[in-house]
Amino acid sequence: MLTVSDVDKNFDNFRALNALNLNVRRGSIYGLIGTNGAGKTTIIKAITGVLKVDKGQITIEGEDVFDNSAIKERMGYIPDDLYFFAGYNLKEMARFYKALYPKWNSERYENMVKQFNLDEKRKLARFSKGMQKQAAFILIMTTMPDYLILDEPIDGLDPIIRKLVWKYVVEDVAEREMTVLVSSHNLKEMEGICDSIGILSKGNMVMERDLDELKSDIHKIQVAYKEKIENPYEGLNVLHKEERGTVDLLIVRNRRDVVEQIIQERKPLLFDMLPLTLEEIFIYELGGVDNEVQGILF
Amino acid sequence: MKFKASYFSVSGTLVKENLRRFWAIPVIGFLIYFLSGVFPILMSYSHLNDMSSYIEMCLNNKQPFYMIAHLLIPIITAVIIFRYLQHTSSVTAFHAMPFTRMKLYNSSLISGLIMILTPIIANGLLLLCIAKPAYQMWTYDADLMSLSTDVSGLIDVFARADILTWMGESIVIVLVIYAISVFAGMVTGNSVMHLAMAFGFNFLVPALYGVFILYCNYLYGFDYSGNWSETMLGSSPYLQVFTHGGEFAIGLIIYYLLNALVLFILSAVLYQKRKLEKASDAFVFKFMVPIISYLVAFFGMSLFGFYFSVLGGGEPYFYAGLIAGAVVFFVLGRMIVLKTPRIFNAKSVKSFAVYAVIAAVFVTSIMCDLTGFEDRIPNADKVKGAAGGKFVGEESGTRYYSELYLGGSGMHLIQSFTYTSEENITALVQLHQDILKNRAAFEVYNGRMSYLKFSYDTGSLLPMQRAYSVPTTFLVSNAQCKQLFEGKEFKQYYSLNNLNYTRMISINFNDPLTASNTITVSNQNELKELMACMEQDFQERTYEQQVDVTHMYANATLNYKMKDERGKTKDSNMYMEIKQSDKNTLKWLEEHGYSEQFLLTADQVESITVYKYDYQEQQNESYDMATMDQKAATIAESNVKYGIEEEGFTITDPEQIQLILDNYMQNATDYNHYYYAYANLKPGVFADGRDGGYQSDETMYFNDDNLPDFLKSVF
Amino acid sequence: MFQLDLKSRKSIYEQVVDNLKELIISGVIKEEDKLLSVRELSKILTVNPNTIQKAYSELERQGYVYSVVGLGTFVAQRQKIKIDDSMLSDLKYRMRESIKELFYLGLTYEDTKKLVEALIEERSEWEC
């Protein structure tokens, strides 16, 4: 269990994190999404013990993460900005990591190197960015972390490799109950892999839900009635409404059955209901209601 | 903070990995020491005595490659080892790894220590292995600059003790430099700044002292040598070596090591507090911003101030320079520290205002002597001991170097001969007071001056030190000086019986005009007699006789054996003058037939050419040139410029020659107006086989008073 | 076993549930057959195991499967399936839509009725 409670973080006069709360259950895959500059990398660096927070607490299994080398032995972090020792190749980095992490699994290392088809004797500086990410992934996964933190991990990887990466992640989550925190802008992929979502904006946690619950709570509907009805949407939590001729387009925060019940009562001519994709939810929650956003949604 | 054992935790893995990554540095360091030290020694191994001075230079850390390595290797090591703190990607990666911050710091620190110490220790061990005696014919003593020709006093400069001393000293030096460089890394945010600050901090204290002393020179009586320069250079072991070279005193070693330790601990604290997100900023801690901008402003302000005052000449220029420099360099410093040219805001103005106030207080307190420095005279009753000049006039040589005598010690920078009797101290204080009374006149005096130093031991930590330029004429006729010279204390201390020697080997004499005719007295009985004569003459000499401007009768060099502080027997010597008034010595030399062997007489002189130099006349001539025609003007101008005085007057008459030989001075008394002469000697006069009429080695001087009458009409 | 449509708006969880139900209903997986473990299925599909776990739990809630601790999850006998009101209304909605479309296509009321009855006949061998 990873808990961030009431965390503030300032960079000089800029408040990067504001009373932030974040919870990741053991064995879940948590997707951290947010606009650029929302504070995703900041909170991740705080979680991995790189940054010190100004207020609040970050704990893993009840223990404070800062300066806690015991916890860090069980944590694997792949940052957005990779770093390897100058002039080192994968094999040499592996040797270093092996001495550093007690749970290093040499067999897995061999397998992964083969599967990703990387030349472990080649200098890492000469790898393409994508291959460097793969190398970092191999190194981190071989340490058999209990907590895996990924900051924009899959950007720049081809689809085959992406699938391979998620395969390993899912396997460890399934086998060892590994806990994963992923930050990414690729919401489609997040949607497919995460079970919980946290939406970050301006240092605040706007929404943190189980992904399925998140999706089941909000729908977009197209309705048309034969005659005009007074207050046709009474009883619904209408977040957004737009009239396009005789058809109404709405976004309502209600469960599917509730919506159905209320709309069907009034016997509509046309009634279409769709769940929102994560991308749409993101844009809606964070984009604000204005013309451009509407265009995207509908 | 609880004191945990974890403060000392180190990751062996990380240390090993660092060594693996950066092995090149200790290898390069080793090579530098090796190729400039062990290698040349091995090359000359069969004839090591030829290398003895080089070996001594190496082991005293005066060899340039050693010194360069001592400075560069610790700095570069610190920069490279802590480079990971200076980039976002590396600082993130390292701190996400399973280390506590202390472990990271300790491991990096120790990796660096291993890297800087290994080359020195390795070379030291190699030197120990190949150490075999290498003898110096000459003992080069930096303080005395004495050379000995006595072969029996050989010194082995390649002894095991010397090598171990070198190792110890070098280790202390690199430790301090490394500690400072690590500290620099803790407060800076990128490697460029780290490197710059590592160099800067290493020389900051001496530099600050240096600039401070420049300001203090505005104070009448400020003595920049002595206490100030000792402290300034002593603060950095690197610079200490330049001035002293040789061993550090135990106290100094402990001071340096404590320094290093404190810096290591301070760096650890700062590392804990460091905001890692500031990597790539110039400075990581806010408190560095004013410190660095103020330092830059201070140095810049001083630079402009002194530069302008030299250009323009005078205080208004000085102040203008200070103000201009303060503004310009404050802006510059702030831009560098904040890494942006956009510093023109209220905050900067406030910061500058604070600096301006501090600078103004500093400058005014010096320029207006708010501490009462200039007029302070110690209370004669409270003074335990005072060292002043030796009031020995222009006597050349090492006769009055206090460390040559028993009871003297240390460097002659700090005068160790001290007056302790009440009347002498009173005299010194009186002299000091008189100088201050005449300050106005002395400051504008244009003639020949003597530099006089005072040092009072009042029981406080540091002695009160002053130094003044005083007209020579004032000193020569001063009653206090007379007393201080003729008083018992001086005569007792500088008695020849008090000279620190175990056995007198020989005394050489030569005429002051030509050093090549030297005669040597080496018979032990004769030496005893001679010494007795010289001693008696000294004891009976009056102050007036001491400061008489007439040339000396002879140069005397005393060669003797002595025991140094370590108890080793060394060769040494002392140069002194035999004065015209030393009648006992003169009589002895004549009676024993030595005088005629070295004294220059008229019959050895072919001719003497006398010239006149007058500053005022030269200036007048250059005015006249404006009225001359072009060609004539150029010739006259070049004549004046290169001092070609065509109006030299040549004398060949033996009587006149003798007159000149009897009355000349060794130095001019008035730089702006004097007469000078060369003696052209007959062939065969020089014992070193020069033939032909060569000029005497030294110049003869006259002023209006002692110029022989027959010449007065000429000029 | 079955494919997931990642482009679909339907959540993965729903798809897994629906797909498994389809397999069970159509008899591809028979009664008392053991389903793949959560771990295995998640690895094969590269899907979050929690999602699979949730799907299995939902299927169990609806009565399609039951789980035995330590042994796994098994297809339940058909009788155990409960009628879920929300599911029912969901299906009703879907059927309503399909029927609406049939009218839209141009089928008469009578044709539509015949069609629907014929479809039901196809499953006549199924017993409730």
What does this structure look like?
The complex is a heterotrimer of chains A (298), B (715) and C (128). The model of chain A is unreliable at 289-293 (pLDDT under 50). Chain A is of the alpha/beta class and 298 residues long. Helix content of chain A is 36%, strand content 29%. Chain B contains 27 helices and 13 strands. Mean pLDDT of chain B is 83; it is low at 139-152 and 410-415. Chain C folds into two domains: 12-80, Orthogonal Bundle (Arc Repressor Mutant, subunit A); 85-122. In chain C, strands 1-2 form a two-stranded antiparallel sheet. Chain C is globular. The model of chain C has no long low-confidence stretch (mean pLDDT 83). Classes of the chains: A alpha/beta (298), B alpha+beta (715), C mainly alpha (128). The interface between A and C is medium-sized, with 30 and 21 residues.
Fold-level CATH name of the domain at 214-297 in chain A: Alpha-Beta Plaits
What's the shape of chain B? Answer: globular
The helix/strand class of chain A is: alpha/beta
- Walk across the major sheet of chain A and give the strand order: 6-7-8-3-9-10
Total strands of chain A? 14
Uncertain spans of chain B: 139-152, 410-415
Question: Which value, in Å, is the CA radius of gyration of chain B?
Answer: 32 Å
Q: Residue share in helices of chain B?
A: 40-55%
SSE arrangement:
The complex is a heterotrimer of chains A (298), B (715) and C (128).
Chain A: E1 2-11, E2 14-24, E3 29-34, H1 40-47, E4 55-60, E5 63-64, H2 69-72, E6 75-78, H3 90-100, H4 106-116, H5 129-142, E7 147-151, H6 159-176, E8 179-183, H7 187-193, E9 196-201, E10 204-210, H8 211-216, E11 219-224, E12 238-244, E13 247-252, H9 256-265, E14 270-275, H10 278-287, H11 291-297
Chain B: H1 12-21, H2 24-43, H3 52-59, H4 64-81, H5 88-96, H6 101-130, E1 135-136, E2 155-156, H7 160-187, H8 191-216, H9 227-234, H10 237-243, H11 250-273, H12 288-313, H13 315-338, H14 346-367, E3 385-387, H15 422-437, H16 439-444, E4 449-457, E5 464-471, H17 472-476, H18 479-486, H19 488-493, E6 503-511, E7 514-521, H20 524-540, H21 543-546, E8 554-563, E9 569-578, H22 583-591, H23 595-598, E10 605-614, H24 615-624, H25 630-641, E11 649-651, H26 654-663, E12 673-681, E13 700-702, H27 709-712
Antiparallel strand pairs in B: 1-2, 3-4, 4-5, 6-7, 6-8, 8-9, 10-11, 10-12, 12-13
Helix pairs in contact in B: 1-6, 2-4, 2-6, 4-6, 4-7, 4-8, 6-7, 7-8, 7-11, 8-9, 12-13, 12-14, 15-18, 20-22
Chain C: H1 12-25, H2 38-45, H3 49-62, E1 65-68, E2 72-75, H4 85-105, H5 109-122
Antiparallel strand pairs in C: 1-2
Helix pairs in contact in C: 1-3, 2-3
